[in-house]
Design goal:
Blueprint: E1 2-5, E2 10-14, H1 18-28, H2 37-40, E3 45-49, H3 57-61, H4 64-75, H5 88-92
Parallel strand pairs: 2-3
Antiparallel strand pairs: 1-2
Organism: Rhodobacter capsulatus (Rhodopseudomonas capsulata)
GO molecular function: ATP binding
Domain IstB-like ATP-binding: 38-92
Length: 102
């Protein structure tokens, strides 16, 4: 799991790191401890970013047990913001050639 500790009270995780967590788990053996989740429970916040909807995380992780462990720790007391619509980056892009679409 790609972890970016920004402070003791906030940790940001990117789903892109799920594959790295899966590979690390395979090397380490059958136990999985989410990075700092147990120690942080009730004491800090975690922000998770993903371009995939949560219902695709099991498939993306490549290991349903790992995805269950991650989701189990994240969804308790969670606030989910699910964004939709066109990418703000694409909206802000201005094509070099007016005939091209971003």
């Amino acid at each position: 799991m790609l972890t970016h500790p920004t402070s003791e009270r906030l940790t940001a995780l990117g789903l892109a790191g799920m594959a790295r967590a899966r590979d690390k788990q395979r090397r380490a053996g059958p136990t999985f401890e989410a990075p700092g989740f147990e120690d942080r429970h009730g004491r800090g916040s975690t922000i998770v970013t993903s371009q995939l909807p949560v219902d695709h995380w099991h498939e993306a992780s490549g290991d349903p047990t790992l995805a269950d462990a991650i989701l189990d720790r994240l969804v308790h007391n969670a606030h989910r913001l699910q964004l939709s619509g066109e990418s703000m980056r694409r909206k802000a892009m201005k094509p070099l050639d007016p005939g091209l679409k971003p």
